[in-house]
Amino acid sequence: MMSAPKITFIGAGSTIFVKNILGDVFHREALKTAHIALMDIDPTRLEESHIVVRKLMDSAGASGKITCHTQQKEALQDADFVVVAFQIGGYEPCTVTDFEVCKRHGLEQTIADTLGPGGIMRALRTIPHLWQICEDMTEVCPDATMLNYVNPMAMNTWAMYARYPHIKQVGLCHSVQGTAEELARDLNIDPATLRYRCAGINHMAFYLELERKTADGSYVNLYPELLAAYEAGQAPKPNIHGNTRCQNIVRYEMFKKLGYFVTESSEHFAEYTPWFIKPGREDLIERYKVPLDEYPKRCVEQLANWHKELEEYKNASRIDIKPSREYASTIMNAIWTGEPSVIYGNVRNEGLIDNLPQGCCVEVACLVDANGIQPTKVGTLPSHLAALMQTNINVQTLLTEAILTENRDRVYHAAMMDPHTAAVLGIDEIYALVDDLIAAHGDWLPSWLHR
Q1: Would you say residue 240 has pLDDT above 90?
Q2: 307 is catalytic
């Protein structure tokens, strides 16, 4: 009989996310007896997750063991897979700081977890903790595969492979498979009939091909149908996730202009570009239905829902959940059993996309089997898509250099290059904003920023 893997969760206090990932894990035969090591710095949240995971395991007929840890290295000892899902500084104080300080300087944001001043600050407070995981993995589980779910994905992934190239890691997001499902719903077709090829950078990858299977088994290009549905007012479907604030107009407008559909949501995309959020241009906000301050609102709602769900799970005799769209269990199963799968992952650009910088972090299809995660070559992207991505890669390049070399000047330079920030603020205003953010975040940021 095959031995069982050890799966370590760093940030296991994210109970609902842990539930989704492990719900998938426990329904895979090869992973049912896995040792689950839960690690979080908050003992209360850790115990809550423990209760939920135990019920989940029993409900699925899984028979592995669960251990709980507040010490990271202890949790990582002899791990086969390391799932990382945490937010350094949380909603309060750090997310609130990112939004409120930027607003005082006249810069509005929607999500602020990927790019812009919010994404830059989040990277600066997160990367040192990811490096510590890499350090501990090097010591106690050097052959483990890290599945990283922490934003800002591109900067985090890049900083890890730059400093710890020997660590097997992939950055995971659900925007590729999630958007494909959304587009299928917009067109009232079964997502299982879709076939697509997607590539780019995290939160700005594009479906280079998007097709659906017809009754005779052949595939047809879905883009003409999608454009016709949008122009007829039949797509996007309203409130697809039960959120009336997010109407998904931005992505469809960009699709009309670019000819390709982007993977991350309209509320994200609006702040990666210079065109949608401008002072005194309420007409743009209204026309494109841009939900300013969306992430803080979402955090408040999620915290309330989390407490409600947690009580339900704690009191339930069993927990039955539907499969999630996350790739984690697929990757673990493929590596552990050798049964091949294809996922979309964030990896180092080593000859994968010719017209993006070598060494930057790209999101491409990856073959996964007993050999691990093997990215597939894309070739050359349409030039206008590569040009758009490059504006975001500029920020990622400079921020990664800033933290690798402990160079505060590069933090300013990263903010200067951000398309949205540069469209709103003058150069001295950008410097003042960065100074205020660094001061406001204080000890949440690395000490070299305060020298």
Answers
A1: no
A2: no
